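Apologies for my clumsy wording, but can you show me some protein sequence, whichever is easiest, together with the matching structure tokens, please?
=====
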Amino acid sequence: MMAPSKSTEIPAGWIRASLARARQACQNPVLVFLAPALLIYTGFIVYPVLRTFYNSVHVLRPHNILEFVGFRNFAELFRKDPVFWTSVRNTAIFSVVGTIADVAGGLLLALCLFAKVPLARAWRVVWFTPVLMSYVVVGIIWVWIYDYDWGVVNLVLHWLGLGALEHSWLGDPSTALWAVMVTHLWKWLGFNMIICLAALYALPGEVLGAAELDNCGWIAKLVYVIVPMLRPTLVNLLVLSFIGKMMIFDLVWIMTGGGPLWSTETVSTYVYKRAFDWNTFDLGYPSAIAVVWSIIILLFVVLMTRLLSQREKLEF
């Protein structure tokens, strides 16, 4: 019987070292608990993002036909696509106006509840309930509300003797975007209200009490005391609301599908149409749109955070 060759023998010291490293890795609770989340995050976030960047510089045809085109998709996007700029304009209006209305409305509702208005508990439930509803349910409900023939809005106007104001709210390009924005505002006001209300209850009572002792009115106390102390909360709400509206898709798709005449077309709905709803058979161009819009969102978020962040820490 031949003795085993030295070249095939594994040193015992190397085996012990490997077992020790494996044992140490398994004993590290951080790695053990983070590993599943990191794998899921890599598979569902990191890889799709990298794949989108890769697709944006190619033309992807059926049957896995791939053609490298460089920046041709981006050049066509900026020079020859008026629908893209229409969707950018609509999304910008929706994001700016909707974000300000969302956060300001949530703050006003929170201030009303903080001031102990009658039936405060009931109003809290009423305003927060839409947050728990899906976009599909909210969209269908408000399509019914806006209906021209039997919708609640036109029925109320007719009952009040304002029949001249009856309108096809989702069928008119001049009102469709604003109608969708009101629906989105109705859904998310309760979320901002709860966050602002929690922040109000966390404010130090000594500061508010000192303001009352100085005979500070409600408006002055709101402008000079409450809002400065709520600034971190308001900044976070503004950034989160802005990001959500820059990527709005569900509600617009359910209520209008981007119409009429592109009046409610957003960048997200346009990307979806170019990728799956139109017979263009090319995933490269919508990937280029997604890349450009992601970079724009990132730049705006960084800019908003820098402009709105508080440079001097409040001490109280």
